[in-house]
Amino acid sequence: MLNEKPVGLFLNPELDKKMVRDGFIVLPFIDKQEISAFKELYKKWHPEHPTAFYKSYFDPRMEYKLEVENEIIRVFQEKMNTTFCKYNAFGGLFVVKPPTQEGHLPPHQDWSFVDERNDWSINMWCPLEDVNDENGNIIVLKGSHQFNRTIRGVGTPDVYRDHWKLIEKNMQSVPMKAGEAIFFFHGLLHGSTLNKTPKSRVSLGLTLTPENAQHYFHYKENGEGEKQLERFETTPDFYIDYASKRGARPEGEAEFDSFTFDSLSENHLIEQIRLVQGEVKVIKPIQKAKNTTNWLRKIKKTILKT
């Protein structure tokens, strides 16, 4: 049975229970006037839309990043104070998906920001327009934050890589109205649909962690041979500067972590999905060669008769 023990995230215990069980929750959050104000802020810094998938945290202009982050926190703060228990809010940013984006983003988990054995961390995503399967809405694998303990950071392996097709087949779409916000654990497997419309999709992002939680950044050097996982103690201020240097090893001392990245077997993953969703959409295997042979025999007989 999956864990449904409250984590002290929401003030409302029913919301807390649902969040722990499903890994995500959608709530109405900002109104039309606030949406319009964010659109104007976006236009101020972007006379033209980016041509590729874009997050404002990756921009080198610190003045821009700080203005966006501070404004998102300011607008969301009042409502978050009546929704969440004591928390940190950081990482406020614009997330833009341009039209007909090429390429495919597989199911993934976000970075680990805290020790998830003891603390929670969640991502907030809020579209500035209605979203659906046509313009890049969120898709999730319900309950997957509890399937396998992981640590995510720069260079860490994807323990679900061998099961992307199975995961995608069982993910659910989460269409949303402008101003609604989806909150999900950073360990939840998620993604978004392609934007097939002629218009860029603009949304807001934010990270929440417990007020007194220690923050961590994880780094694992790429290359041949076994490389040890390094864990850096950080603060929320670390990420806004690091984002424009992403991929680099942070300066300073780190602790070495002996964490083992264990992958789930396909059967175990199927069991976990079935436990949460009641059924599993399993990928049908390719027909066996003997079926192809029988089909060819039938064709040959037909040809001979004619």
Protein architecture, described:
- It is a single chain.
- This protein has 306 residues and is an alpha+beta fold.
- It has one domain (13-305): Jelly Rolls (Sandwich).
- 28% of the residues lie in helices and 21% in strands.
- The chain has 7 helices and 12 strands.
- Strands 1-7-4-9-3-2 form a 6-stranded antiparallel beta sheet. The protein has a 3-stranded antiparallel beta sheet with strand order 6-5-8, with no helix packed on it.
- Strand 10 (215-220) and strand 11 (229-234) form a beta hairpin.
- Helix 2 runs antiparallel to helix 3 (62-81).
- It is globular.
Helical content band: 25-40%
Here the CATH topology equals Jelly Rolls
Number of E-state strands: 12
Helices and strands, in N-to-C order? Answer: HEHEHEEEHEEEEEEHEHH
User: Structural class of the helix and strand makeup?
Assistant: alpha+beta
Name of the CATH superfamily? q2cbj1_9rhob like domain
What is the count of structural domains? 1
Question: What is the residue-averaged pLDDT?
Answer: 89
Q: Report the span from N to C terminus.
A: 62 Å
Q: Per CATH, which architecture?
A: Sandwich
- Specify Rg, calculated over alpha carbons: 22 Å
Shape: globular
CATH C-level = Mainly Beta
List the helices and strands and how they pair.
Layout: H1 13-22, E1 24-28, H2 32-45, E2 54-55, H3 62-81, E3 87-97, E4 122-127, E5 138-140, H4 164-169, E6 172-174, E7 180-185, E8 190-192, E9 201-210, E10 215-220, E11 229-234, H5 237-242, E12 255-257, H6 266-277, H7 289-305
Antiparallel strand pairs: 1-7, 2-3, 3-9, 4-7, 4-9, 5-6, 5-8, 10-11, 11-12
